[in-house]
Specification:
- By secondary structure, the protein is mainly α.
- The protein is built from 3 helices and 2 strands, in the order H-H-E-E-H.
- It has a two-stranded antiparallel ribbon with strand order 1-2.
- A hairpin with a 2-residue loop joins strand 1 (78-80) and strand 2 (83-85).
- Helix 2 (34-67) crosses helix 3.
Length: 122
């Protein structure tokens, strides 16, 4: 009759297997840039409201004033026939995007978060 206890894994062998799989998972996360992506996503979401307020409440009125006419930049449009082309809203959204992208990029670099990801070994 065969000894069945020889097929039962020991606690130390289970711990080693789990440790090896966990190390592989952490390595995958670091190599694929998931940490940087997650941090960029979180920072982008947090900064987005502040930057949107800056663009809407400060930059748009200044640009609208400099362009002339009434209203803010976001309200600028031209009409052809019955169709309104809201070019001001589009430009305001572009300004919003550029500022958010710059804040996230420079925040990411200043905090040194770009060094969290491990480079792939060739």
């Amino acid at each position: 009759m065969e000894n069945f206890t020889s097929h039962i894994p020991t606690a130390s062998s289970l711990k080693e297997k789990t440790k090896g799989k966990l190390h592989g998972f952490v390595s995958f996360i670091r190599e694929q840039g998931v940490v940087g992506l997650a941090i960029g996503f979180i920072l982008g979401g947090a900064v987005s409201k502040v930057v949107s307020s800056l663009v809407t409440d400060v930059i748009n009125p200044i640009v609208g004033f400099l362009i002339g006419g009434e209203g803010t930049l976001a309200e600028k449009q031209f009409v052809i026939s019955d169709t309104a082309f809201k070019w001001g809203s589009f430009v305001a959204t572009l300004i919003d995007f550029v500022i958010i992208a710059a804040v996230v990029y420079f925040g990411f670099k200043m905090l040194g978060l770009d060094k969290l990801d491990k480079k792939k070994e060739s």
